[in-house]
Amino acid sequence: MANIKVHDKEFVPYITEHEIEEQIKRVAAEINKDYEGKKPLFIAILNGAFIFAADLFKKINVEAEICFIKLASYKGVKSTGKVITAI
């Protein structure tokens, strides 16, 4: 796997895109089974969970809702140790 560069940071991938896709399918299948006949509400934390939540929600077959909340505990690349609702 090639390294990923975002701005001035370089990352070594831990798992492949294919492995992520397979796990999203597995989780979606479990949710579809466990929540059949129910209407779950998914709450995704921005910004980090946005892509995962979108990919997962596309595979959800039960009636469901999704909403997003923006929280932050980082300033730059270091945690402040406090979680705040971000604007």
Model description:
This protein has 87 residues and is α+β, with helices and mostly antiparallel strands. It has one domain (4-85): Rossmann fold (3-Layer(aba) Sandwich), CATH 3.40.50. It is built from two helices and five strands. It has helices at residues 17-34, 50-58, and strands at 4-6, 9-11, 41-46, 65-75, 78-85. A three-stranded mixed sheet has the order 3-4-5. The protein has a two-stranded antiparallel ribbon with strand order 1-2. Helix 1 packs across helix 2. The model has no long low-confidence stretch (mean pLDDT 92).
In short:
With 87 residues, this protein is α+β, with helices and mostly antiparallel strands.
Topology, pairings included?
Layout: E1 4-6, E2 9-11, H1 17-34, E3 41-46, H2 50-58, E4 65-75, E5 78-85
Parallel strand pairs: 3-4
Antiparallel strand pairs: 1-2, 4-5
Helix pairs in contact: 1-2
Spatial order of the strands forming the largest sheet: 3-4-5
Alpha-carbon Rg, integer: 16 Å
Main sheet record: 3 strands, mixed
How far the N terminus sits from the C terminus, by CA atoms, comes to 35 Å
Q: Tell me the CATH topology.
A: Rossmann fold
User: Uncertain regions: pLDDT < 50 for 5+ in a row?
Assistant: none
Work out the helix count.
Answer: 2
Number of domains: 1
Annotation keywords:
87 residues, alpha+beta, Rossmann fold, 5 strands, 31% helix, flat
